[in-house]
Amino acid sequence: PSSRVSLTVNGERHTVTVDNRTSLLDLLREHLDLPGSKKGCNAGACGACTVLVGGRRVNSCLTLAVRLDGADVTTIEGLADGDQLHPLQKAFIEEDAFQCGYCTPGQIMSGVGCIQEGHAGSKDEIREWMSGNLCRCGCYVKIVRAVEQTAH
Ligand code: FES
Fold first, then answer.
1. What CATH code is assigned to 87-151?
2. Which residue numbers delimit the 2Fe-2S ferredoxin-type domain (predicted)?
3. How far apart are the CA of 62 and the centre of ligand 1, in A?
């Protein structure tokens, strides 16, 4: 069975018909041509697919698209303001907070959520609240620094 879902993604309204089992991640990548959110584990373990729904972080691989009728979704593609990068995107560049870059969209979306949720008070707090985002290159020290610098 399939359903129609209307949602706003990065400020643009979309109405799509999807199989009821479609994840938000697949909706973004395959139906809306937004491949910035990455499919690492597809099982809620790595955080590479993190996006904001109503300003809160979710693992888009674990979120059913059909549950999001009327939702407001922000992905890495919608974070910059035109040519103006989001402060956390700038901080990732300044701090050199990535190597291969695969986890970076999820790290940045999670970092934005972490700051907005008020969980970026200290390095320890950031580490705790971003523990769902894995980085195989081991850039954690710089990622935490970038989030901390943006929050303060
Ligand atoms: Fe969603 Fe890994 S792809 S948590």
1. 1.10.150.120
2. 3-79
3. 8
